[in-house]
Amino acid sequence: MGGEPNSDMYMSNEETVSPRRHWNETVMLQSLKTPTRLAALLIGALVLFLAMALPSVAQSIDDAIAKLTTDGYSDTAAAINALATSGSPRALPIVQALNDGKLQFSASDKKVFIVTATGLVEAVTGAPVATPPADISDVRANNRIRGLVNAALGALSLANPDPQKRIASADAVFKSRDEGALAALDTAIANETNSTVAIAFKAAKAAIILFKADAPVNDRVAAAQAIQLRGTQDAVALLRSLPADTPKPVLEAANASAKAIEYNLALWSMAQNAWYGLSLGSVLLLAAIGLAITFGVMGIINMAHGEMVMIGAYVTFVVQEIIRTRFPGLFDWSLTIALPLAFMTSGLVGIAIERTIIRWLYGRPLDTLLATWGISLALQQTVRSIFGANNREVGSPSWMSGSFQVGQLSITWGRMWIIVFALIVFAGLIAILRRTPLGLQMRAVTQNRSMASAMGIPTAWIDALTFGLGCGIAGIAGVALSQIDNVSPNLGQGYIIDSFMVVVFGGVGNLWGTLVGAMTLGIVNKFLEPVAGAVLGKIFVLVAIILFIQKRPRGLFALKGRAVES
Amino acid sequence: MSLFKTMTIAGAVLAGALTASAALAEDTIKVGVLHSLSGTMAISETTLKDTVLFLIDEQNKKGGVLGKKLEPVVVDPASNWPLFAEKARELISKDKVSVVFGCWTSVSRKSVLPVFKELNSILFYPVQYEGEESERNVFYTGAAPNQQAIPAVDYLMSADGGSVKRWVLAGTDYVYPRTTNKILEAYLKAKGVAAEDIMINYTPFGHSDWQSIVADIKKFGSAGKKTAVVSTINGDANVPFYKELGNQGIKATDIPVVAFSVGEEELAGLDAKPLVGHLAAWNYFESIKTPENAQFIKDWQAFTKNPKRTTNDPMEATVIGFHAWVAAVTKAGTTDTDKVIDTLPGTKVPNLTGGTAEVLPNHHITKPVYIGEIKADGQFDIVWQTKSLVPGAAWSSYLEGSKDLVADWVTLKCGNYNTITKKCGG
Asked: Rounded distance, CA B64 to CA B58, Å?
């Protein structure tokens, strides 16, 4: 737009062409990139037509702007509704700016501004503002406003070139059931080429018709059946929230649809519990697998095991801090970089502990328990003195954020990668124990120390290395756990009991037992939690394990042979 | 200089310093600080220890109290409840402190109560709690349930709060959430909310796997009525809880969560962007714009030499308690326990949000209530506040066992006076 158009003039004089031409240009630009150009053009034409047919429309956006400058939630809400129905081309950018927190106002000038990448612009005219007014401040939003903004954006952006945005906008209409959007929705459905988006559009339309009191009963029944296709929890909510005075056939159709969806969802919720169980199991596996070496293979009751996990998590924090300040581009690699460092740090701390304290206490389990408990407290307080008592923020790299949908099951990337990672670590550890000379020596030393020594194996160093390996694996677990838990000095405490439980339940000295034990505990926990609650669920599991150990003292997969008997 | 000589001089200097400090000690008023500096609660309580040290430093710059300097005595009860009682005894009998600022969890407060009664000293307790208590030796400067939980629920029921009809009461499994939720349940039912529209869920301390509980909440919330979560989840468990909410795509516009234990400090440990719009109810927020608050934040950050150090609600409660004690001691002209306890009710000190906190006869104080929405930067945007100050009620009027009880240490000299039987003692 050329020059500085007078906003008041534009407001009062509908014949001013420049803003409308601007809108048309935007539409044309968008239309070049999209297969739905016809839809966009049609909507554009519709908006233009509405704008010309209703001379009072411009007035109402003027009112709406004035209301945005009063800094009251009720006025802001009224303004959003007015903007959504105004048909003004400037409505979308203004509501979008409010959604993004980029809308500002000046009470003294009665003007509203949008913060853009290039600077401040006047919201109504789009003209750049050289010097912002002194009393400029953000238009504030609360949850009520945000809900209205979402609904308004839904109605306003049905013709967005981005299919994801169109689906989001269809969902917003589905939730708001704004009858005003029906015409635009029809146009959009007619022009939609993307089948996924079309389904979303149709569901939104069905939602509106279902609640439209003056629509024919047959249409409403059909709408209730159409919504069943959506199959989600919010569809059930919608079907169940029909007012009581709705005609009976409609209510019955809605109930039938809701029941069908609910049955389907109940099946999915089983799958969901199983998935959550696997996820919890993988966390338990990560925490316990290092202990399966130190406790399971070597027989050391290492109460400081949780602190090794914590050290791994803090290594991740330090790595991320350095990356944030020095090499921001590497952030997505931060966890990959932290893995070997965490392994080495925790491993070296473990070796140091073994060399200085634990090796003097072999064969004295009670002393080892007390000494390592003391070490765990000392390590916690050391970390607290260095990093402070507060939680430290460890960010998630982009490939671990967000979730994806499998049917009605939403799976978060972070949890999925942790399961994969736990299995990789498990496989790696098995490979080390079975396929490397170090693993061979470790097994030899733990099975028959004097014989191994006679064969020339440096048993003392193998002990240190084995303990270091167990601790290093715990450090790796810390990297993964930093993604789902608090990175605080107490991080490890929460896992030590669970880890021992997994190892004892699975069978001391057997890695496969640890895997099966962790997964079993995870799944049992998650199926019990919805029924018994988190607290009782944990107690049940603990009691069940105690009873199980009475029956099978060596756990699920007991080691057999002479080495064990001695 | 020979080694021997150096050591003699060093020894002499040291001895001199010791005598000097001993001489100084006679002219000071000792203030006990009983907050955990290690263990689970260190995350929250360390800040309050620093706050008391900061306040003492400020007061000493103004010349102290009654012409004497204040001297802090800091002990570490290490998040160990019985140790709280031992350390309290040590502070009162051995160090002879005039007043103690301390405790965070209710169980630690309950553990030191007998000690304060037996040795007759004063405890200022600065954290929001479940109420149902009023002791002669304790002053409660945090919020009682009617100063935090009830107004928050009222807000959610209002049009601005989203006209919530269905409620999830989620808490950590211990006394504060259990009592608060009992009060809230009774209150909601009194407001006509049906039993099937209330879901109560407890989790252990430090719960970290929230997947199925959040999925449950999501399911409960999609029954067609506007749903909100009232969270009394405490401590570390909050971070994974909010992370899971973000992961499962529960936005504040769908199911808002109002928390009573999440403040600026807790948010500093996580990425607040997915949490925008979730709520917290407190009597103070760092983002409240008053000259008093701006000055306080500036001085606090200068004292801690950390320009990013946040402030929070229990800190403000500590500030109010400290100033009220200073005012009462100044007025009474002595640090004698009985005289200070008698002087404290009626004492008015400014709070940090532009109002006045008055110590009431039931040893609670008047407070404004604010509802804040989490912003992307981890601060709060105030969306609602009570029109006037709310006086703290020791006993909830919504619980069967306590609705007839009143606490009044000025005229009735009783913490649990039964208005029906006209007897002291519940």
From this structure: 9
- Dihedral (C-alpha) A253, A257, A259, A265: value to the nearest 10 degrees? -170
Q: How many domains are there within chain B? A: 3
- CA B122 vs CA A179, B140, B336: distances in Å: 64, 11, 10
B409 near B341, Cβ under 8 Å? yes
Range of the domain at B404: 395-426
Reported as a single tens digit per residue, the pLDDT across A53-80 is 444 444 567 888 888 888 788 888 888 8
Round the CA-based radius of gyration of chain B to a whole number and report it. 23
Long-range contacts of A265-268 (CB under 8 A, 24+ apart): A265/A231, A265/A233, A265/A236, A265/A408, A268/A407, A268/A408, A268/A409
Q: Is B266 left (phi over 0), alpha (psi -120 to 50) or beta?
A: alpha
Considering the domain architecture, whether residues B360 and B234 belong to the same structural domain is answered as: no
Give yes or no: residues B216 and B330 share one domain: no
Residue B2 counted as domain residue: no
CB contact under 8 A, B240 and A534: no
Tokens matching residue B72: 């802090």
B155 and B203 housed in the same domain: yes
B112 shares a domain with B43: yes
Phi, psi of B364 (to 5 degrees): -100, 180
Which residues are CB-contacts of A111 (< 8 A; sequence separation ≥ 6)?
A7, A65, A69, A105, A122, A123, A124, A133
CB neighbours of residue A514 within 10 Å: 30
Give the one of B215, B224, B270 whose C-beta lies nearest to A241's C-beta: B224
Task: Answer yes or no: do A144 and B162 touch at CB < 8 A.
Answer: yes
DSSP structure class, residue A305: H
Whether residues B218 and B339 share a domain: the answer is: no
- In chain B, residues with a C-beta closer than 8 Å to the C-beta of A535 are 173, 202-204
Nearest to A237 among B173, B223, B376 (CB): B223
The ipTM of this complex is 0.70
User: Which of A142, A377, A540 is most worth mutating to test chain B (most B CB atoms within 10 A of its CB)?
Assistant: A142
Residues B274 and B344 in one domain: no
> pLDDT tens digit string along B248-283?
878 888 899 999 988 887 777 667 777 888 999 999
Residues paired with A105 in a beta bridge:
A112, A137
The helix (run of H) or strand (run of E) holding residue A162 is: none
Q: In a mutagenesis test of the B interface, which of A99, A143, A321 is the best target, namely the one with the most B β-carbons within 10 Å?
A: A143
What does the pLDDT read at residue A29? 43
- Written as six digits, the tokens of A360 are 């003097």
pLDDT digits 0-9 by tens, A226-263? 888 877 777 887 888 788 788 888 888 888 888 898 88
How large is the C-alpha radius of gyration of chain A?
32
* Same-domain status, B330 and B355: yes
Give yes or no for B383 touching A (CB within 8 A).
Answer: yes
Inter-chain touch B212–A276, beta carbons under 8 Å: yes
